[in-house]
Amino acid sequence: MAESEEVSYFRRTSLFWIVSITFGLVHFTCIVFAPELFPFQYLGPYGTFCRYLLDNHADILYKGWWATFAVHVVEALIALKVCSNRGISNTSSRCLWFVQTFLFGFASLSLLLKYRPERPKQH
Asked: Is the pTM of this model over 0.90?
């Protein structure tokens, strides 16, 4: 492989993680920032529990949301560093890893960490 050749590698995380994490983050965001939109009364004991957390621990939920955001940003930055370490030099691949890891966190980062590029054989 020539030195100037760009290395491109990207794998999409599984649909299970995409749906689960999207649902969880949207749920968390609605409870923290738009509780009037969240249907607490239709969720039985779970809705009662969520309402209790919001009424009695709103500050912790708010800080937890920002902590979640910060962790996802850090994971996305780590993904960029891992791309560099693994030799992934294609800009679009690196951007895809950054965005996917920002959105889905460790479910994406773990796929990147498992990637082991082929190394040229030593003769």
From this structure: no
